[in-house]
Design a protein that fits this description.
Elements: H1 24-30, H2 35-44, H3 46-70, H4 89-105, H5 109-128, H6 135-138, H7 141-156, H8 163-188
Helix pairs in contact: 3-4, 3-7, 4-5, 5-7
């Protein structure tokens, strides 16, 4: 003889299922004027905010490189350009222009941001930190801020408005189309043993 079903037994009041109570998210969705609603809207706009952050940081970084290489925007350190091939200034300027442009447009963002972060860490520890311990005292605030901004982009990715997303979408769509056509061919082909 099988024991009676004790789970959700309507005859047993202790096992009757009770209607679920709304959790805080459900309450927040019903209460659009609440603070949780603001947090939800901010969460939804996070990719766009991250994309704008990436664009601004990439543009500012590329401007430093352009100033050093071409003398635009006031030039390098009070005017002029950095002589070609000089270590480390010219190489840093090339990294600034190249990596800054890639980050700006969202192409290979994580790799470019990693390279840019490393160059700024090198600049801080080789040029600024020997002068004094703190960035405010040694003039290395810009290098430190760029370094950590690029570290953030390495971990978060490009966000919205990145060209990587366009290429990923095309490659992904092409791969999906090829995969489905291959699957159809496999299903149509009889298996012989």
């Amino acid at each position: 003889m099988n024991p009676p079903n004790t789970l959700n037994n309507p005859d047993n009041p202790s096992t009757r299922s009770t209607p679920s109570t709304p959790n805080s998210r459900q309450k927040a969705a019903k209460n659009p004027g609440g603070a949780s609603s603001l947090a939800g809207r901010l969460d939804q706009s996070q990719p766009c905010a991250l994309g704008l952050f990436r664009i601004v940081v990439g543009l500012l970084f590329a401007c430093h490189g352009a100033a050093s290489l071409f003398g635009v925007l006031g030039g390098a350190m009070g005017g002029g350009t950095v002589p070609a091939g000089t270590w480390p200034s010219w190489y840093a300027a090339v990294i600034q222009l190249g990596a800054g442009g890639l980050v700006l447009f969202g192409l290979g963002t994580r790799t470019a941001a990693f390279l840019a972060s490393g160059s700024m860490a090198y600049a801080y520890f080789k040029v600024h930190q020997p002068e004094s311990l703190f960035p405010l005292q040694n003039g290395g605030e810009t290098a430190a801020l760029f370094c950590w901004a690029f570290v953030l982009l390495v971990f978060t990715g490009p966000g919205a408005l990145a060209l990587d997303g366009l290429f990923r979408g095309r490659v992904g769509a092409g791969a999906t189309a090829r995969r489905t056509s291959e699957e159809r061919e496999e299903q149509a082909t009889p298996v012989t043993a």
